[in-house]
C-alpha cells in the first residue's frame, strides 16, 4: 500500500513574512493528515533553515528544490545534499523541467543529482515529463522512459525503493491546463509498467506524484486514479487554504 504524498514546490517565491505565515498555517493540516498522507514543502534554499525552525515538532516535512552532486568544494552558488540534510530536509527535487530547461540539465546530470541525494540520505523526487510538442507527437513515454532509464543505468532499479517520481507534463505547469485524470493515469500506469519490466515489486511500491496545475479543483479527481499517489504542487502550494484543500483531497482518497 502506497502512502500518498502531497508536496509543495515553492519555486522562486516567498518572503520571510509569507514563509512564516504559510508554514504556521500548514502544520495543523499536516498533523491531521499524517496517519494517511505525507505532506511536505520544498523551499528555496535560503528559506530552508527558517522552515526547519518553524516546522520542527510538527508532521510537516520539508525539502529542497534541487541539490548539487558534490558534498563540498569550489562550486559557487550550489547547495550540497549534506548541507540540505543538516537543515532537516527529507526530500530533494531533482530534474524539475525548469532546471532541465533553464539550466540545461541533461538526463545524466539529473541522474547524478538523484544519486548524490540518495547517498546522503535525502529522498530524491525525480521529475519527468514531456513538452507540448512531444505530447502532440505521441512521444510522451519515449521522453519519460529515457529520463527514467538514465537513473536506472546509474543507480539501479532498486534505487526506486527509496525515491519518489513526479510526472509533470511541461504543457500543464503553471498554465492552468491540467492533464485530465485519464491522461495522467495512463502515463502513471505506463511508468509503473516500465519500471515493472525491471522489477515488479519496486514498481508496485514507488510513489508517483502528478504535477501540473494541480489545485483544489483538479486534485480530487486526479487523486482518485489508482496510479496517482499524490501531487507535486506549484502555484497552489503558496496559499495555505488551497494547499490544505489538496491535502484533504489526498486524505479522502487514501
Ligand atoms: O513542481 C511543480 C510543478 O511545476 C507544477 O507547478 P504548477 O502547480 O504551478 O502548475
How would you characterize the overall build of this protein?
Its EC number is 5.3.1.1. This protein has 254 residues and is α/β, with parallel strands linked by helices. It is 46% helix and 15% strand. It has helices at 16-33, 45-55, 81-86, 97-102, 107-119, 132-136, 140-155, 181-196, 200-205, 219-223, 240-253, and strands spanning 5-9, 38-43, 61-64, 91-94, 123-128, 164-167, 207-210, 230-233. The longest helix has 18 residues, at 16-33. The chain has one domain (5-253): Aldolase class I (TIM Barrel, Alpha-Beta Barrel). The mean pLDDT is 97. It has an eight-stranded parallel β-sheet. The relative contact order is 0.15. The chain binds glyceraldehyde-3-phosphate (G3H). Residues 9, 96, 168, 173-174, 211-214, 232-236 line the site of glyceraldehyde-3-phosphate (G3H).
Q: What is the secondary structure topology, with strand pairs?
A:
Elements: E1 5-9, H1 16-33, E2 38-43, H2 45-55, E3 61-64, H3 81-86, E4 91-94, H4 97-102, H5 107-119, E5 123-128, H6 132-136, H7 140-155, E6 164-167, H8 181-196, H9 200-205, E7 207-210, H10 219-223, E8 230-233, H11 240-253
Helix pairs in contact: 1-2, 1-11, 5-7, 7-8
The chain binds glyceraldehyde-3-phosphate (G3H).
Amino acid at each position: 500500500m502506497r502512502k500518498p504524498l502531497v508536496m509543495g514546490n515553492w519555486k522562486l517565491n516567498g518572503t520571510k513574512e509569507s514563509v512564516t505565515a504559510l508554514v504556521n498555517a500548514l502544520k495543523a493540516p499536516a498533523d491531521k493528515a499524517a496517519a494517511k498522507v505525507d505532506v511536505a514543502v520544498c523551499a528555496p534554499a535560503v528559506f530552508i533553515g527558517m522552515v526547519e525552525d518553524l516546522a520542527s515538532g510538527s508532521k510537516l516535512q520539508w525539502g529542497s528544490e534541487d541539490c548539487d552532486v558534490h558534498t563540498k568544494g569550489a562550486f559557487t552558488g550550489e547547495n550540497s545534499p549534506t548541507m540540505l540534510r543538516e537543515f532537516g530536509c527529507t526530500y530533494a527535487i531533482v530534474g524539475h523541467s525548469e532546471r532541465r530547461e533553464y539550466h540545461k540539465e541533461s538526463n545524466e546530470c539529473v541522474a547524478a543529482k538523484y544519486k548524490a541525494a540518495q547517498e546522503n540520505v535525502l529522498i530524491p523526487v525525480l521529475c519527468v515529463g514531456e513538452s507540448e510538442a512531444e505530447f502532440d507527437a505521441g512521444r510522451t513515454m519515449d521522453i519519460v522512459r529515457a529520463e527514467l532509464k538514465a537513473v536506472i543505468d546509474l543507480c539501479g532499479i532498486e534505487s526506486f525503493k527509496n525515491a519518489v517520481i513526479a510526472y509533470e507534463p511541461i504543457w500543464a505547469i503553471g498554465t492552468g491546463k491540467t492533464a485530465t485524470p485519464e491522461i495522467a493515469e495512463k502515463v502513471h500506469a505506463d511508468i509503473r509498467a516500465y519500471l515493472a519490466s525491471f522489477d515488479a515489486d519496486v514498481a508496485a511500491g514507488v510513489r508517483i506524484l502528478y504535477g501540473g496545475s494541480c489545485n483544489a479543483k483538479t486534485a480530487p479527481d486526479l487523486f482518485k486514479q489508482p496510479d496517482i499517489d499524490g501531487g507535486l504542487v506549484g502555484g497552489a502550494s503558496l496559499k495555505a487554504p488551497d494547499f490544505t484543500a489538496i491535502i484533504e483531497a489526498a486524505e479522502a482518497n487514501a
